[in-house]
Here is the input.
Amino acid sequence: MKLGEGISAVVTGGASGLGAATARRLAASGVKVTLFDMNVEAGEAVAREIGGAFVAVDVTSDDSVTKGFAAARERFGVERILVNCAGIAPVAKTTSRGEPHPMDMFEKVVAVNLVGTFRCIAHSSTAMTALDPVTDDGERGVIVSTASVAAFDGQIGQVAYAASKGGVAAATLPIARDLSKSGVRVMTIAPGLFETPMLLGLPEEVQASLGQQVPFPSRLGKPDEYANLVAAIVDNPMLNGETIRLDGAIRMAPR
Here is the structure.
């Protein structure tokens, strides 16, 4: 699918980090973008910057997601692109200091990162599959989700995060197969160490140390590099049902 005018997109977690970079990249190609996020101030600022729209959406709520898509479609029509970037990454060990992992934390991480991602996919694909095709192959839409290298190389304290992102990666192929006859492609990106708000909040020397762990290029990834891969996925019709590691060849150590 070619990016350009007449195409609309929804980006979850679009107020900052990978989501904001993706929204900017799509908008620069003429795509009309609606941002879903819980951070109203930042989300509205990005939307104004790119000439898009913002809706406050909690991806753990079916009602919130339903209303979010309704608002996005009222403004720009049914989306042909969905990019799932909403996610959280708290840290806790399976057991620590005689206490078990807080189960409410584990459940919340899975609810946001895995269930929230699938909720948006299910709602978006239901509308996408009713659209007319836009390519000779019969393509109707493209869905890109965000996993993490933690899905494969989860570190100490990342059990909830790794489990949730592993679920996103594992779901990619069956979702792609479910939607194949309807002309909707499904891909996942598993980023490594990127300049997201979480990492940028660390001291500069810690950021530099983390970047040096990446074989090449030996630095933190830039959100624009994630966004460029999203654009490449949308453009290439043979990319379907796969998770792409975007990580500079890093394989995470236990800690």
